[in-house]
Amino acid sequence: MVSIIFASLAPSIALLCFFYLKDKYNSEPLSMVVRSFIYGVLLVFPVIVLQYAFQEEGLLLSKFLQAFVSAALFEEFFKWFILFYIFYKNEQFDQHYDGIVYGVSISLGFATMENIFYLIVFGVDQAIFRALLPVSSHALFGVVMGYYLGKAAITESRAKSKLVVLSLFLPWLLHGIYDYILHVQQYWVYIMLPFMIFLWSIALRKVKLANTPYK
């Protein structure tokens, strides 16, 4: 069990440190980052219950609905809800990059708990695969979500509402595409590799932009 917990935590902590240390301005309080990570861990439980309930009722059984609703919508909405209603409205959330820090932290908390459950069932030998795909993809969805909420926090224009909507819509869309590739493509690995490169390029660009002084 110790090896499973370590194998689940290690990639999440590494990615969280990577994005946390990318902050060029005032770093967020570690207590707030840890708190957001714990919220992400706890989010796994209502999501699992919701997914199980729909499955038992025979709903959302098609590959498309499993990818875009059961996985992407349920998971990204709950993460977005916590990020928006608990951290976005906090006084500490006062810079563009703050959104990325908290978005990544919540997402990695979720990915860590999800990873523990997965490795308990399928074995710790799946840890490298999980680190390269599910864990890192959750972090990248969190970057996109946090980027747009962070931008909304520092803008006073009418675009604020649009940015808030994009902070949920784009991670949902990317997550749905990610899961759909896993579900239906026979040669999914050949599609997933360029898609993950695409996700990383988007995320690193968002990191750079969020660190650019707002004018």
From TrEMBL:
InterPro entries noted in UniProt: Peptidase_PrsW_arch/bac (IPR023596), PrsW (IPR026898)
GO molecular function terms attached to this record: peptidase activity
Membrane-crossing residue ranges in chain numbering: 6-21, 33-54, 66-88, 100-121, 127-150, 162-181, 187-205
Key word Nucleus present: no
EC identifiers of the protein: 3.4.-.-
Cellular compartment(s): Cell membrane
Membrane topology reported for the UniProt record: Multi-pass membrane protein
Pfam families: PrsW-protease
GO biological process, one term: proteolysis
Function: Involved in the degradation of specific anti-sigma factors.
Record family assignment: Belongs to the protease PrsW family.
Name by which UniProt lists this protein: Protease PrsW
Source organism of the structure: Anaerobacillus arseniciselenatis
